Amino acid sequence: MGSRCSRIDEIQCRVSGVRLVSFALMLLTLWSLYDAAKRRAPIYWYFLLVLGFPIGAIFYVAWTKLQGFDPVERQLEIADKLEREHAYSNAARVFASILEIQPSRPRALHGHARCAIELGETQRALDLYDRLMRVDPRYRDYTAALEYAEVLSRNGRAEDAADLMKGMVRESAKPNHRLALAHYLTLSGQPSAARSALESFLADNPPEPWRQRAEKLLEETQSS
């Protein structure tokens, strides 16, 4: 009887240990997600952390440790913090100093471009976005490319914005990319091309609310 009880106790201890380890790994994953958001880590880390539980968190911790050997990582964190605090001039100076060391650093190019927009330095922003597109056109899951297209359009270069979106659609035909293409085609005086793009999109039976947005854009192109 005593032997049986000791085995039961041993099993219970093991189960408790497994639960404790699982809880610790869950906490590590949650921390990793928070840290990734703060660092503005590449989008693939979020998928790895969620879908690759718990191995993803272990890899993430190893990656952050490696980042500690990066000579400009701390400066990037400072610049990002300054930008979040709307200290755009100071943030821009830090981003610029980083680009002197690493001219092709995507995070610095993107941050500096956003700061330049806030400071009214449109041409500088366009130059920085152009450099970023040459280095990594997919940066932050194409967010930077969409920002670049909007800046181009606002500065009388809607046709260039449409050309940029054409390349994006060929590579990643997401609903927002295809609607953005139609939008910039319309703004650049190409309503027939915009209608064709929208009709093709609607023929693929997109889900709501993308269908409603496409139908609204289509009405606008027909009235233009």
Describe it:
There is one protein chain. The chain has 3 domains: 55 residues; 65 residues, Tetratricopeptide repeat domain (Serine Threonine Protein Phosphatase 5, Tetratricopeptide repeat, Alpha Horseshoe); 83 residues, Tetratricopeptide repeat domain (Serine Threonine Protein Phosphatase 5, Tetratricopeptide repeat, Alpha Horseshoe), CATH 1.25.40.10. Helices cover 79% and strands 0% of the residues. It has 12 helices and no strands. Helix 2 runs antiparallel to helix 3, helix 4 packs antiparallel against helix 5 and helix 7 packs antiparallel against helix 8. The radius of gyration is 24 Å and the shape is flat. The termini are far apart.
Give a nutshell description of this structure:
With 224 residues, the chain is mainly α. It has twelve helices and no strands. It has three domains: 13-67; 72-136, Serine Threonine Protein Phosphatase 5, Tetratricopeptide repeat (Alpha Horseshoe), CATH 1.25.40.10; 142-224, Tetratricopeptide repeat domain (Serine Threonine Protein Phosphatase 5, Tetratricopeptide repeat).
Task: Give the SSE map.
Layout lengths: L1 H38 L4 H8 L3 H13 L5 H12 L3 H14 L4 H13 L3 H14 L7 H12 L3 H14 L3 H13 L3 H13 L6 H14 L1
> For the record, what CATH class of the largest domain applies?
Mainly Alpha
Question: Approximately how much helix is present in the residues?
Answer: over 70%
Per DSSP E runs of 2 or more residues, the count of β-strands stands at 0
Structural class: mainly alpha
Number of domains: 3
Report the β-strand fraction as a percent range.
under 5%
User: In one word, what is the shape?
Assistant: flat
What average pLDDT do the residues reach? Answer: 88
